[in-house]
């Protein structure tokens, strides 16, 4: 195992503290469960009052962004400000607000915050990287954040697998041309473009070339006509993870 790069940061006088309050909400459900932007802001602002003296702070808010990636507007601005010495402390309400990836969490702390003398504080877990204990605990907690993310992925994947086996469409994404997804019934239903799909088959059976079919029906590419002709969804077959299942869609 590689040796940890965590190190003790230099003490910063209270009057020189410039805190970044990082706030993230990925879904409406998270807001309902107590992680709304307002709740996080209130808790973090209250924490700044625990420092001796007045603390300057700025809000960094990513509203509607997953914690699985660092490609978030406020996060990218936070990273730049940490590297440029704009902030001295980064505060989050809970570790998974920063990231749900163990790799990304350790990257931020070890490669961005600590090398630039930026302390990281998680209010709910009651630790900060200005202490030796905090630097050790953050590595442990990030492992559990990663584990939870992987568990969520496995549960979601398992649920989709069971849906497909029962003949239902696995979800609302990637709906094929000529269909709409009915979330209540869990199936695909023909839409206004279904007639075009039928015309493609009819013209092909009459001997028309794919490019000619595409031109006649206003399709941009010959390849689109070929994809529609070869799509097994049109005959009620659902392909999932390389396996074919009999679907309930028309």
Counting H and I runs of at least 4 residues, what is the number of helices?
9
Termini, distance in Å?
54 Å
CATH topology of the largest domain: Rossmann fold
Low-confidence region ranges: 1-7
**CATH C-level category of the largest domain:** Alpha Beta
Task: Report the β-strand fraction as a percent range.
Answer: 15-25%
Which structural class do the helices and strands define?
alpha/beta
Q: What is the oligomer described by this structure?
A: single chain
| Annotation, overall tally of beta strands | 9
Largest sheet: 5 strands, mixed
- Radius of gyration (CA) equals 26 Å
Give the strand order of the largest sheet, numbering strands 1, 2, ... along the chain.
2-1-3-4-5
Mean pLDDT: 84
Please tell me about this protein's structure.
By secondary structure, the chain is an alpha/beta fold. The relative contact order is 0.10. It is built from nine helices and nine strands. The chain folds into two domains: 14-151, 3-Layer(aba) Sandwich (Rossmann fold); 179-246. The protein has a five-stranded mixed β-sheet with strand order 2-1-3-4-5, with helices on both faces. Strands 6-7 form a two-stranded antiparallel sheet. A two-stranded antiparallel sheet has the order 8-9. The longest helix has 34 residues, at 132-165.
Summarize the structure.
The model is unreliable at 1-7 (pLDDT under 50).
What keyword list fits this structure?
about 250 residues, alpha/beta, Rossmann fold, 2 domains, two-stranded antiparallel sheet, disordered N terminus
């Amino acid at each position: 195992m590689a040796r940890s790069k965590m190190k003790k940061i230099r003490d910063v006088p209270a009057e020189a503290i410039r805190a970044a309050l990082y706030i993230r909400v990925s879904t409406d459900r998270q807001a309902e469960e107590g992680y709304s932007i307002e709740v996080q802001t209130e808790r973090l602002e209250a924490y700044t009052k625990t420092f001796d003296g007045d603390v300057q702070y700025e809000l960094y808010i990513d509203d509607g962004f997953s914690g699985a990636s660092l490609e978030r507007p406020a996060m990218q601005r936070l990273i730049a400000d940490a590297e440029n010495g704009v902030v001295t402390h980064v505060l989050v309400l809970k570790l998974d607000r920063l990231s749900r990836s163990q790799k990304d969490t350790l990257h931020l702390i070890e490669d961005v915050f600590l090398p630039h003398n930026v302390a990281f504080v998680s209010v709910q877990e009651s630790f900060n990287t200005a202490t030796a204990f905090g630097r050790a605990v953050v590595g442990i907690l990030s492992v559990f954040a990663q584990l939870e993310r992987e568990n969520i992925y496995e549960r979601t994947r398992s649920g989709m697998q069971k849906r497909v086996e029962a003949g239902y469409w696995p979800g609302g994404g990637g709906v094929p041309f000529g269909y709409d997804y009915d979330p209540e019934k869990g199936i695909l239903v023909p839409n206004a473009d279904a007639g075009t799909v039928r015309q493609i088959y009819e013209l092909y059976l009459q001997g028309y070339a794919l490019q000619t079919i595409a031109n006649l029906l206003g399709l941009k590419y010959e390849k689109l006509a070929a994809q529609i002709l070869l799509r097994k969804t049109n005959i009620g077959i659902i392909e999932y993870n390389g396996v074919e299942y009999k679907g309930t869609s028309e």
